[in-house]
Amino acid sequence: MNMLKIGFIGVGGIAESRHIPAVRKLAEKAVITGVSDVNHHRAQQIAETYNIPGVYENYHDLLENVDAVFISTPNKFHAEISVAALQAGVHVFCEKPMALSTKECDEMIKAAEESGKVLSIGYHYRFMKNAQAAKKVMLEGEIGEPLVIRAQGLRRRKVPGWGVFTNKELQGGGSLIDYGCHLLDLALWLMGDSVPVEVMGSQYNLLSRTPKQVNLWGDFDHSTFEVDDHVTGYVRFENGASLLLETSWSANIKEDLENVSISGEKGGLDVFPFHLNQAKHGLLLNSEAAFIPGDDNPGNPQAENFVDCCLGLAEQVVKPEEARRVSMLIEAIYESSLTGSSVKLNERKEVESQ
Ligand SMILES: NC(=O)c1ccc[n+]([C@@H]2O[C@H](COP(=O)([O-])OP(=O)(O)OC[C@H]3O[C@@H](n4cnc5c(N)ncnc54)[C@H](O)[C@@H]3O)[C@@H](O)[C@H]2O)c1
């Protein structure tokens, strides 16, 4: 088998902690041959640490020398670099969120369609063991059609104090686009092909704009804090299902909470921790899993699925149209929050390039 030559564009925290180790585990089919970062010193340091031969100041030069690329830059650059890579005939794994807007997502999907190359997005929650178990239970019809879905990604005081996470121009938003996107993506994936038709949302950032807040994830400047730190959303689907989303970096709640819970026609489930809730034999039953197979580190199966897709060996788990739907809902939640009205989606085409 030919080795897949992989490049990295943007080699900050997530590239080094998740993607580089995951790709290095796939040594029989993939090799990291180049890195590029606007912080050239950082690129050189990563290349040295991981014995990567190519360091490129200009990412276009890297694209000429690789088969596939991992893009882990701030959100603002996801679309531009992905489109350039796809147009250069390079497979793309792009970190989440897919882009800053549905329009940018459409440009990425169009470039992928025209190039015939793989485009996947880093929604790694789908590769978590509990999520895989929940998907299997859903596909086997154990809980029937989903009726009410709750997606919660709540942190009490964890505004990221590093990188550019509180910069609206570079990231497009705060807790919703950065963290809530994972739970939203997971919920939509578990629901299957339910089509969202209407969205309402509210966003807050009063806590993070208040001086002298306790924060467990480093320091940030409250006086320039301009993104959301707590968001609620309500999504209605064509089939009558509804989804309640709540996410925060900072909120006056008792403790952090992360879960997707689905109440379906025949039963229900919780993903974190995994629970199957059923009414059977005249009883109300709650089942726990004594064993869940899979890798404890979802970054490993995520990278393997991408590499295998590039090599034509596997079906893509995170499809770009699905990641685009997450971005469309995020955009609609922010829009609803600003206008105070619900946003109707049923007249918006799902994928504009179709
Ligand atoms: N899937 C997840 O759970 C997860 C977790 C963390 C971050 N992320 C995503 O990964 C991306 C990067 O986050 P991070 O935590 O690694 O941030 P980071 O700040 O640690 O790293 C970003 C790197 O990109 C470089 N960079 C900035 N602009 C660039 C450009 N135009 N071209 C090339 N390099 C550029 C920076 O110099 C830096 O080295 C973000 O999109 C973020 O949402 C995803």
From TrEMBL:
Residues 132-269 form the GFO/IDH/MocA-like oxidoreductase domain. Signal peptide: none annotated. Pfam families: GFO_IDH_MocA, GFO_IDH_MocA_C3. InterPro entries: Gfo/Idh/MocA-like_OxRdtase_N, Gfo/Idh/MocA_Oxidoreductase, GFO_IDH_MocA-like_dom, NAD(P)-bd_dom_sf. GO terms for molecular function: nucleotide binding. It comes from the Bacteria. Residues 4-123 form the Gfo/Idh/MocA-like oxidoreductase N-terminal domain. PANTHER family: D-GLUCOSIDE 3-DEHYDROGENASE (PTHR43249:SF1), UDP-N-ACETYL-2-AMINO-2-DEOXY-D-GLUCURONATE OXIDASE (PTHR43249). This is Predicted dehydrogenase.
